[in-house]
Amino acid sequence: MSELVIRRLQRRPRFRRAAEPPAFRLTDDDVAIVRLLAHHRFLRSTHIAALLTRSLDRINDRLLRLFHAGYVDRPRAQLDFYPTSGSAPMAYALADRGARLLIARDGIDFANVEWSRKNRRAGRPFIEHQLAIMDFYVALQCAARVHENVQLIAPDEIARAFPDQSITARNPFALQVPIRHEGVTHTVGLVPDLVFGLAFADGSRRCFMVEIDRGTMPVARSAIAQTSFERKMRAYLTAHAIRVHERHFGWKTFRVLTVTTDHHRAQHMRAVLQSIRVAHSPGPSLFFFATYGELSEWDPLALQWRDGNGRSVGLT
Fold first, then answer.
1. Tally of CB atoms within 10 A around 261
2. Where are the alpha helices (DSSP H) in 173-228?
3. I want to staple 201 with a disulfide (CB 3.0 to 4.6 A). Which of 37, 101, 149, 236 is the partner?
4. Is the pLDDT of residue 2 over 80?
C-alpha cells in the first residue's frame, strides 16, 4: 500500500466523530473555547484564534480534539458551501457535552441543552449570516486592542446599563417601531445584528447598531409592508426621531453601521436613504456605510466610512 493511501486511511472524518477519537485531556483553553461558542453561537476557527490570541495551528488542534470528544459541533450545513468556498476556515458550534460542561463549571442555566439538535437544524443562510456578523465583531475587538484611548463596550455591558433592568427579552436590543408611510402606520420589528459602544479617554462614548447586509434583501420595494432595506432604514430613522434609544437604552444618540457587498449596492442604499423623510430624525447622517472589501483591508476603527450623504467619516 502506498504512503498516500496510508495517510488517507488515517485521516479522521471531517463531519463525523471518529470511532477512535484522538487522545484528549481538557485544558483551560478548551474550556475558554467552549465558553466562546456558548456566547456567540457560531465561530470559525480563525475567530477563536483571534479572540483567544492563540496560534491558529494550536486552536485547530484543540478544536479537532474537542469535536471528536463531543464538546463542540461542526455544523453539517457547511457541506453546502465547501464546494464553492474552497478551504474556508471550519465553523464550529457548541455541542451537548460542551453545554453540560458549562453547567457543571459555570452554573449556566441553559433554556435548552439540546444544542446539537439545533445545530443540525441550522441552515446555510443562517450560519453564513451569523459568521458574517462575527467577522465584523472579531475585527472590531482586535482593532480595539491596538487603538490607544479607545475601549470597546460589549453588548452585555451595554445591556447591564439599561435604565430599565426589567427587560428580559431574548434579544434585549429588539425594538418595535411604528413607521408612518402614505398615511398608514406599520409596526416594524427592528433587530440589529450587533450593538456596541466605544469609550474614549475623555469620558465620552459613542453607541452603534450594526447591520450586516449580504445582498439577499431588496434595497427597495413597491410596498412598505414587504421586507426591504428601505423599510429597515425608515424604522431606524423613526426610532431615533421618537427617542426610543433614550427610553430603552439610555443613550443620547447612536449611529447605524451598514456593511454591504459592494460600492454599487452601498450607493443604491444611500440614494434610497436620501429620498426618505422622517421628521425630527438626523436623516442620512444617521447611517455609515462600508463594504466587506474595505473591511478586509482596514480595521473598523481605522476605516473611513461613508455616511448617507457620501461624506467620509470615522468611528473614533
1. 14
2. none
3. 149
4. no
Query: Which pairing describes strands 184-190 and 150-153: parallel, antiparallel, or unpaired?
Result: unpaired
| Domain boundaries 3-122, corresponding CATH code | 1.10.10.10
Amino acid at 245: H
pTM for this structure? 0.88
Residue type, 132: A
Measured between alpha carbons, how far is 99 from 104 in angstroms, rounded to an integer? 9
- Closest by alpha carbon to 266, among 315, 313, 215? 215
pLDDT tens for each residue of 16-53: 787 777 778 999 999 999 999 999 999 999 999 999 99
Share in percent of the chain as helix, strand, coil (round to 5): 45, 20, 40
Instruction: Tell me the three cell numbers of residue 170.
Output: 431574548
**Cα angle at 294 between 237 and 139, to 5 degrees?**
85
Amino acid letter, 238: T
Q: Where are the beta strands (DSSP E) in the chain?
A: 42-44, 72-73, 91-94, 150-153, 175-181, 184-190, 194-200, 205-212, 255-260, 287-291, 305-307, 312-313
Edge to edge, what strands does the sheet with 255-260 contain? 150-153, 194-200, 205-212, 255-260, 287-291, 305-307, 312-313
Contact 137, 194 (CB under 8 A): yes
**CATH 1.10.10.10 boundaries in the chain:** 3-122
**Residue 213 CA to chain centroid, in angstroms?**
11
What CA–CA distances, in Å, run from 97 to 48, 66, 93, 134? 19, 10, 12, 23
